[in-house]
Write a structure and sequence with these properties.
Layout (H helix, E strand, L loop, with lengths): L4 E4 L2 E4 L10 H5 L2 E9 L2 E2 L2 H15 L7 H13 L5 H4 L2 E8 L13 E8 L2 H4 L2 H4 L1 E4 L4 E2 L15 H13 L3 E7 L4 E4 L3 E6 L2 E4 L9 H12 L4 E3 L4 H5 L3 E6 L3 E8 L2 E2 L3 E2 L2 H14 L3 H8 L10 E2 L5
Parallel strand pairs: 7-9, 7-15, 8-9, 12-13
Antiparallel strand pairs: 1-2, 1-6, 3-4, 3-5, 5-6, 9-10, 11-12, 11-14, 14-15, 15-16, 17-18
Length: 315
């Protein structure tokens, strides 16, 4: 099996030959933005929507892409096509467009940007177990802030705040993911994902103010409303999650995963809960495949799909 092919500054190259100058502003200063899609059966999902969000990030950082977003999208599609012979081996992919500001001391008058498109196999083994056991969430001390820090809606290459939150979380529970609060103590977002909870028959999720507005989040909200659920965007506190009937998280790679506990306390009665199960089935319809089963297959865990498990047995 030959190497995955990347697109780097207009050229298709094997992954091992993709290089970046060490004086690049993105490498040295984190001065850049990115966006990531996934494929289903080798087809990019909602590429145009991801590129629109990337365009907003570029506008905020005042980086001139030097080409249209439509042209960048065609390059992404061709990069996927050049890797299709690996599809059965890899399963499906993350596809990431990264744009670093060009070199130069003045960020308002730099050289042309450094642009790359990379393809990576999805981390099936990392995510597969959580479809049945549920994700453990821990609240770290760091906060998400749209008021005093870098706005989380900007999808910047610098992810150190998330890394620090994850390091703190894993010191408390190696299997947990961080759930950060905003500066007012409201639930914000999960490490690389968005949070939903179910209470009193409605699906509730944090407002967009201090979170990355996830494409998967928006898709899930649409699927939930199509299924007849009321979806409420509101300020939520840890209390609301502790007392929820069930909870789930969403992001590009795994689409939707149940949550089983917060800071060691169980959430709900079964994992996954009935709403999470129904929305997972809706996601399967959108994806054209069984998302959880694909994860299990490529993680080497393929077998009969388990029914929802009592929360005490899901640990």
């Amino acid at each position: 099996m030959d190497e995955i092919t990347y697109w780097v500054n207009g050229e298709f190259v094997p992954a091992s030959r993709a290089v970046m100058p060490l004086n690049n502003r993105g490498y040295r200063l984190g001065d850049g933005v990115f966006d990531t899609e996934r494929t289903f059966n080798g087809k990019l999902f909602k590429l145009d929507t991801h590129l629109e969000r990337l365009g907003r990030s570029l506008k905020m950082l005042r980086i001139d892409l030097g080409m249209s977003l439509e042209e960048l999208g065609r390059c992404a599609e061709e990069t996927v096509e050049r890797n299709l012979h690996r599809l059965e081996h890899d399963g499906d992919w993350w596809v990431t467009q990264t744009i670093h500001r060009g070199d130069g001391g003045n960020p308002l008058n730099p050289a042309p940007p450094f642009i790359s498109i990379i393809v990576e196999p999805l981390a099936f083994a990392r995510f597969a177990p959580y479809y049945t056991k549920g994700a453990h969430l821990v609240i770290p001390s760091g906060r998400s802030s749209a008021r005093t820090g870098m706005d989380p809606k900007l999808k910047a290459v610098s992810r150190l705040a998330m890394v620090l939150a994850d390091l703190e979380t894993k010191r408390m529970d190696e299997d947990a993911w961080s759930l950060v609060l905003d500066e007012e103590g409201n639930l914000a977002e999960v490490f690389y994902g968005n949070l939903f909870l179910v209470r009193e028959g409605a699906i509730r999720t944090p407002t967009p103010r201090a979170i990355l507005e996830g494409i998967t989040r928006a898709t899930t909200i649409g699927l939930a409303r199509e299924a007849g659920y009321e979806v409420i965007e509101q300020n939520l506190q840890p209390y609301d999650l502790y007392t929820a009937d069930e909870a789930f998280i969403t992001t590009t790679s795994y689409c939707i995963l149940p949550v089983s506990e917060l800071n060691g306390a169980p959430i709900g009665e079964a994992v996954p809960g009935p709403v999470t199960q129904r929305l997972t089935e809706a996601w399967n319809g959108v994806a054209g495949l069984d998302v959880a089963e694909q994860m299990r297959r490529y993680a080497g865990l393929a077998g009969p799909t388990r029914a929802a498990q009592p929360i005490t047995a899901a640990r």
